[in-house]
């Protein structure tokens, strides 16, 4: 019994080895990737295991929660997103898909079901991904897991199989490629967010303690460049600039600059500065971090806020001239108070100012703190961030704050021009020409009316309002605005004639 058992297992061993050798020869000689993929899909796991006898496989396992952390691993999420596109969306031979809802994602997230396996091809090499899970830890999950989702749910993994001879290709190029592509899918699928900074006491708007310094809502602003009324040439320049920035990763790396860009939007209230930011975010598909500077207590808090922003985002400080006393006036005041001590104001150490320099809200953020925030830290954090300052009084800002290199592009948002009006007429009234357009064109040249006011006049106020009545109303308002401008000019002329000292610009 023993001898026959031994000879039976010997002969089955020989047969198995022969099959493996033949299979490996066949495998190595299979011409064309498609054939390999066909075979790998249909003979799948068993054939692969046979081939592994002579050409060993390596594996890489990626856990959903690695190192006992509460947060899902970035690598796991990226692989999941990559496989979602690479397999589920195109079929990929996967029969069992899992559908889950996910935070901040609109659609259901599809992923491979447990024990599903899928092949992927990369530069002539074939690799295989297996999804599997293990039961939750019953024992002694660390207390900081707090019995939360990570502790209760099955522990999920992706395992990558590849031939040893593809080791360098897979580890050096394929895996980074998977993570990059996965990230791109995640960015595309995610709901974008509008973040605002918390008050500084760590509680969010609902009075709940928050670990993050930011709270957020879903960003769903409808404005795009298509509905932003401004001079078309200027608009194109901004769009081209944003596109160049988005595609500029290699350029920034080559010239040794952090991948960031600063925009200063200035102009009177109602000319569309906030609207422009929404259009930029929608165009680039970026999140928006809206910093309320008056709630930031110290330069250190400002630094923390910045560090917690993510790539592909626009960081906004609106009305920078009002947020803090970061203006020339403050510099002057300080210079006087310092009794001869020179105020360099530019990029020192971000030291906190004395109490008398705090703004009304109790913030101790200084000009140097903001400058450090803009340039010093840029280089320390990963790229693809845009920072936008808006102001109604560009002339009041300290030149150090807005010099090129910090605020690379200065965009003036001005009163409504005729081209901008035509766009608003199309958007609000669906009208492209009208006998009142000529009157509007000549009045706009002389009257200062913001796009916000033009848009308001073009908005029907009752069911009886139509394009005729709205445009007639606009013409009436423009005539009034024109009279105001003329009266102001005349008043100024009179003042000059009277020798009045017109120094209110220095306020
Ligand atoms: N250029 C524009 N194109 C289209 N709509 C505009 C434009 N400017 C203003 N509006 C309309 O007017 C409203 C107010 O504009 P917005 O808040 O963008 O102006 P702002 O320049 O940021 O003003 P403020 O300086 O007071 O913050 C917007 O909701 C938008 O509907």
UniProtKB/TrEMBL annotation:
TM segment ranges: 6-27
UniProt keyword Ribosomal protein present: no
Molecular function GO terms recorded: ATP binding; ATP hydrolysis activity
Pfam families: AAA, AAA_assoc, AAA_lid_At3g28540
Keywords from the UniProt entry: ATP-binding, Magnesium, Membrane, Nucleotide-binding, Transmembrane, Transmembrane helix
Cofactor: Mg(2+)
Similarity-based family: Belongs to the AAA ATPase family. BCS1 subfamily.
Protein name according to UniProt: AAA+ ATPase domain-containing protein
